Amino acid sequence: MQKWVRKVVNMMKSEKLYASQGGPIILSQIENEYQRIESAFNGKGSRYVQWAAGLAVGLQTGVPWIMCSQQDAPDPVINTCNGFECGVKFEGPNSPNKPSLWTENWTSFVQRYGEEPFIRSAADIAFHVALFVAKNGTYVNYYMYHGGTNFGRTAAANVITSYYDQAPLDEYGLIRQPLWGHLKELHAAIKLCKVPLLAGSYETSSLGHLQIAYVFKGKSGKCAAFLVNNDNTSNARVRFQNISFELPSMSISILPDCKNVAFNTAKVSTQYNTRSRTVKYKFDSMERWEEFNEPIPIFSNTLLKANALLDHMSTTKDTSDYLWYTVSFQHESDAEAELSVVSNAHVVHAFVNGAYKGYAHGGKHNFALENPIELKNGTNHITLLSVMVGFPNSGAYLERKTAGIRSVRIQNRYLNNYQWGYQIGLLGENLSIFTDNGRNKVEWSRFQGRHSRLIWYKTVFDAPGGNDPLALNLGSMGKGEVWVNGKSIGRYWVSIHTPQQRPSQTWYNIPRSFLKPEENQLVLVEEEYGDPLGITLDSVSITKDAKY
């Protein structure tokens, strides 16, 4: 860590990027939310915090260092707040010489497969920003202000490909109203208060049981006030400096001159908009699709072998979501049996003698696949595909976390200690058949329309005209990954639904910079029974909502 931090800081210094050198960097962060796991390391955790702070300060950047969500950040490192309601829950700076900083104001939250998006209203976000400033907060950073895309395999465990799409600027960079406009008005109102905020005295006064005034008075006589109504059920009529004000429930009125209301957090005047999509291209021609069936490995053609069930994560080393487990054994007759597989990865697919026999998925804990199978007289091949939908990226002792297949049983026979063969990744992945150089390394065939499990699909398309963002509608597919011109636009898992019986994500962002005018190559690997003929390429735009 020391080598890495020094490397980054020296790169910044060499380009004169710190404010002390005339550059734009005004803050640097060391560690992130470490306090959440610190206790797991007993006394070593607090010693590490001291060491990390000393490392950072010793690099002499000339700008302050911060630790997010670390209440005991050692001087002079500044402790800051991450969360939804830092004006309510932040304990404040741990020293009078430190400013009050809100480093992550969560405009939405990480969304996982099977979950609905977390939506915060414009009024709620504005209320908590205004409250933090009213309580002498000096800095608010939005996380995120602009949504994004977890391209490739960059999403963490079970996290969807879209990231913070509910932000003021969505995944495509389009304005999301009324959130964007309401926050713009809030920022303008706070800016009107800048003189007393920056150089004035600070006092509070009660306006009622759940109402309070935060007042800033400058030496020049300038005054700004934040009138807060914390009652979440009723409006309140209050008097401030002999003037009557009506405060909507759970709202803050900003008075840049202590007399006139410039903004109220609950009064959203910005017109709503709606994001719409228009089909630009349909991939519904069978003649334009080709397919390649992913081969199912058996024990004899694997290179990696072990007399145990190996851990998925430490075996693949994050080079693939997929790890094949395969074993062969003798059986003395044709028979029906039950296959039982216990896994704590995310998905498992089972094959017996090359035939598909079942699928199961889980989450953080063990889950089981239990299916009837047919054994034949002689050698039988059991092949299991373990799938991780991203790796865990937070928590104590990450290096100790394990995942993968934990137990395999056929009737009363446990196969855990048999000799197993392993293949890291799919053959199509390992040959990069989604690229120009790799696509001819396998023999593609004409699309058959059978919608098989574990199959690759390939087609070409021309880029639609215009400048609107583009998204691939994968509503007809199941689970897999998709590439455009060799670039992965992410994992998809359309078949897993939210409690409202809809996919967590259906449309997948294709930046126009990924495209050529003509002959763009689209490749998918489909684990389930998806139908590529239902895929469409859509443009994305916003329109004002007439009902508002």
UniProtKB/TrEMBL annotation:
Domain Beta-galactosidase beta-sandwich intervals: 213-268
InterPro entries the record matches: BetaGal_gal-bd, Galactose-bd-like_sf, GH, GHD, Gly_Hdrlase_35_cat, Glyco_hydro_35_CS, Glycoside_Hdrlase_35
Superkingdom, natural source: Eukaryota
Pfam families referenced in this protein's UniProt entry, alphabetically: BetaGal_gal-bd (PF21467), GHD (PF17834), Glyco_hydro_35 (PF01301)
Record key words, sorted: Apoplast, Glycoprotein, Glycosidase, Hydrolase, Secreted, Signal
Major subcellular location class: secreted
Coiled coil: none
EC number: 3.2.1.23
Localization in the cell: Secreted, Extracellular space, Apoplast
Domain (Beta-galactosidase galactose-binding): residue spans on this chain: 454-520
Gene Ontology biological process terms from the UniProt entry: carbohydrate metabolic process
Cell membrane is among the record's keywords: no
GO cellular component: apoplast
GO molecular function: beta-galactosidase activity
Domain Glycoside hydrolase 35 catalytic: 1-189
Reactions mediated catalytically: Hydrolysis of terminal non-reducing beta-D-galactose residues in beta-D-galactosides
Family label: Belongs to the glycosyl hydrolase 35 family.
Name recorded for this polypeptide: beta-galactosidase
